[in-house]
Each structure stands twice: as structure tokens, then as C-alpha cells.
Amino acid sequence: MHTREQKRVLITGAAGQIGTELTIALRERLGNENVIGMGHRTKAPKELEEGPFIYGDINDLESYEKIVDEYEIDTVYHLAAILSVTGEKNPQLCYDVNLNGLYNILEVARKRDQRLFCPSSIAVFGNDEETGEVVLKPTTMYGVTKVAGELLCDYYYRKYAVDVRGIRYPGLISWKTEPGGGTTDYAVAIYYEAIRNKKYECFVRADTKLPMMYMSDAIKGTLDLMDAPLENLNQHSDYNLSSMSFTAGELAESIAKRIDGFECTYVSDNRQEIADSWPDEIDDASSRNDWNWDPAYNLERMTEDMLANLEIKLKEE
Ligand code: NAD
Ligand code: SER
Predict the structure, then answer these.
(1) Rounded distance between C-alpha atoms, residue 139 and residue 136, angstroms
(2) Is 55 a catalytic residue?
(3) Catalytic one among 64, 77, 95, 142?
(4) Where is the NAD-dependent epimerase/dehydratase domain (predicted)?
């Protein structure tokens, strides 16, 4: 039986791209039994079978409250969301999960004095039509829900002192769990296809440049932000975080250097428009100043690591 001093953490969206790896990292710190993974419809990944994994819907407030009370949760990493491409296919679902779901998470946290991590995204940005400047004016429903979500989180901090923190993750690249429904998914799929077939048809142009990050840096940033003393934070739910920016063409070149004969072709589809609406780079000086953010991976190091791990994973499949 855990004691009240022991942290008990719930991760929503635990079967997702970030959730799988964050659950593993938190279990290493806090012990398997103190980190509860919450999935929705996706089956729990094998790596998460060592600790509690339950299924629930963040839009069902009553059952979510029951889960939180049963496990005496004091900290929630809220990763359940609908990403940009799925969000454009089904904007109503995106609104419902990303905003009504978030509202439930915040309300439960307010009533139980829980700490929260609620991530945002580079998708909060858009281009000003007149000046071309990068501004907080997204053009996707996903981006709209992320900006509104940041504001809602900050409201709960100011009004109710809920300690809620969040990062605007760039596109995340990882090999453990595949991403789904995002615009930056090409930057992961390219590695799988390079190993399987030595070719990839990319759905954005070669000159499309976006901020990206390797998953181990994203996990480190998440844990570092949650570990930072509250008094050091000048922002709460909207910290920019960057580590590298590259074009789809540069990504393909870094793979071609290591896989003989790899070829990438480019056929843009409707995801190009979403990618074009996001900034090439973001300034993360406040994360570096407030909580010492310092990423470890650049494109070449990441490609080495991705290919080495994926070679092993795909051989085992
Ligand atoms: P993901 O799509 O891999 O996982 C999200 C999970 O949410 C899914 O497994 C899904 O089953 C679950 N979910 C959906 N609706 C739900 C509901 N009603 N109740 C409970 N669970 C539900 O997403 P991810 O890539 O791991 O992203 C996690 C968070 O990070 C999201 O807030 C996302 O916006 C943000 N983010 C991700 C990236 C990225 O590149 N992966 C970049 C920027 C921001
Ligand atoms: N990777 C995410 C997406 O493409 C960005 O938030 O939707």
C-alpha cells in the first residue's frame, strides 16, 4: 500500500506516441505501481504491462473522477488529444476532446489540488495574412484548441492556483510508438520506410522546414519542467521548446548517408497547407532561462539512434 507522501501519477493518452515513453520514464523514477497509464481505445503497448493500465474517456467526467479517486492520483500528465490531421477530418471531435476533455481534467485538478502537465504544440502559431509574421493565430481546429487550452490552463493557475505546466512541443520523432494523425508524422514514417523499402513518398515538399525534436529530449524537457521550482517559472502552460529545425529534404539526406540507395520522392497533399502555416523555428529562450532547458540531439545524432533502434525493432516484428 502506498503512503500519502508517495506521488501517484496518472497519464492520459498513455498508449500514444509520447504517453508510452513518458509512462516508462516516470515508472523508472516512481516505481511501476505508482504510475497509472490510462488508455482509451488503443490497446496498452507491451512495454506498459509491468504496471497498472486502465481504460477511460476524459469526456466522461464521472468515470474519470472515479479513476482519479480510486488510485489517489496527485499528479496528472494529460496527453490525451486529437492531433492536427485527424482534427481537420473531424473538427467537432477535436474540439470536444481537446477542450471539453481538458476542462474536465482542470476541474478535477482544482477540486483535488492535483498538479498537472498539459502539453501544447507549435500548432498554436499561424502567419499573419498581412505581414507574414508568426502570430498566435492558428488555422487548424487543433491549433485553435491548443491556444484556447493554454489560456484555460493559465486561467486555472491565476484564479485557482492549480499548478499546471505545459510545453509547446515541436514535431516529435521516436521509434517506440508510431505517431498517428499528425502533420509531422512524415518525419517518423520516412525512417520506417527507409529500412523496409529503401524509399519513401513524402507528403510535404522537400523544402518544408519545421521545428522537430527527438523523443528522449521531449521526455527530459517534460520531467525537467515538472521538477522546476514554481517560483522560477515566468510562464506556465505555453513554454516554447526547440532543439532542431530541418527540411524534409535534409532529413532524407541524413538517412541516405546511412542507407545505400535510399530515395525519397515528394508528393504534397492537404497536409502541406498545415505544415506551411507553422513556423520554421521557434525561440525557446524562456525555457532555457527559467528551467535550464538544454537538448541533447541534433539531426545527425537522432538519425543514428533512430536507425539503430528501428533496425532491431523491425527485425523482431
Ligand atoms: P497520440 O495521438 O499518439 O496519443 C493521444 C492518445 O489520446 C491516443 O492514444 C488516444 O487513444 C487518446 N485519446 C483520444 N481521445 C481520448 C479520450 N476521449 N479519452 C481518453 N483518451 C483519448 O498523441 P501524442 O503524439 O502522444 O501527443 C500527446 C500530446 O502532446 C497531445 O496533447 C498533443 O497535442 C501534444 N503534442 C504532440 C506532438 C507530437 O509530435 N507527437 C507535438 C506537439 C504536441
Ligand atoms: N506533431 C503534431 C501534429 O503534427 C504537432 O502538434 O499534429
Answers:
(1) 10
(2) no
(3) 142
(4) 9-240
Number of domains the chain contains: 2
- Out of 79, 88, 184, 204, give the residue to mutate to test ligand 2, the one with the largest number of ligand atoms within 8 Å of its CB: 184
Retrieve residue 290's grid coordinates: 527559467
Q: For residues 163-190, give the mean pLDDT.
A: 97
The pTM is what?
Answer: 0.97
Residue 38 has what pLDDT? 98
Q: Is residue 280 part of a domain?
A: yes
181, 270: one domain:
yes
Q: What percent of the chain has pLDDT over 90?
A: 93
163, 115 Cβ separation under 8 angstroms: yes
Q: Rounded to 5 degrees, what are φ and ψ at 164? A: -115, 130
Query: What's the rounded Cα separation, in Å, for the pair 215 and 176?
Result: 9
Confirm whether 83 is domain-assigned.
yes
Which protein residues touch ligand 1 with a CB less than 6 Å away?
A: 12-13, 15-19, 40-42, 57-59, 79-81, 83, 97, 101, 119, 121, 169, 171-172, 179-182, 184
How many Å lie between the centroid of ligand 1 and the Cα of residue 178? Answer: 12
Containing structural domain, residue 27: 9-170+214-240
Instruction: Give nearest CA residue, ligand 2 atom 3.
Output: 182
CA of 159 to the centre of ligand 1 (A): 27
- Looking at the fold, whether 84 and 98 belong to one and the same domain comes out as yes
Ligand nearest to C-alpha 204: 2
What CATH number is associated with residue 34?
3.40.50.720
**Of the candidates 136, 132, 162, the residue with the CA atom closest to the CA atom of residue 147:** 136
The answer on 136 and 107 residing in a single domain is yes
Query: Sorting pLDDT into bands at 50, 70 and 90, what band is 189?
Result: very high
* Residue of 268, 135, 238, 255 whose CA lies nearest to 195: 255
* Nearest-angstrom CA–CA distance, 144 and 151: 11
